[in-house]
Amino acid sequence: MTSNSIQLLPNEVVEYLTLAQVSNLCAITEEEANELIEYGAIHFDRVVAEEGLLSITRLEPLRTACKIRRDYDLDLFTVVISVGHLETIADLQRQIQKYEALIKLE
User: Are 46 and 54 in contact (CB under 8 A)?
Assistant: First the structure.
């Protein structure tokens, strides 16, 4: 499976995945992926040639939420709630890593 690499800034390359790739990696159908788009759990970071692309950094919270759904036989809307919380946790973890790196530089 290939992803689309786009260089945004010097020394910054971001990987993007198509909706089909995301649904495959999250073990959900494309219909479920489209529902998650409608609910706002999946939102595209870029659109290229009318195809939405999701940043690979957003993939892990979505995969985790879909796994929780499968493990506990939950409805799709639970994924929406879980993704929001998991994305917040991931953002906070990135901030902590950034601050820890700044402290080490001092």
Answer: no
Q: What angle do CA 59, 62, 68 make, to 5 degrees?
A: 140
Burial class (CB in 10 A: 0-12, 13-18, 19+), 82: buried
Give me the mean pLDDT over the 23-52 stretch.
93
Tokens (6 digits) for 13: 């390359």
* CB contact at 8 A, 1 and 24: yes
Q: State the pLDDT confidence band at 105, using cuts at 50, 70 and 90.
A: confident
Q: How confident is the model at residue 8 (pLDDT cuts 50, 70, 90)?
A: very low
CA–CA distance, 53 with 24 (Å, rounded to integer)? 14
Provide the whole-model pTM. Answer: 0.76
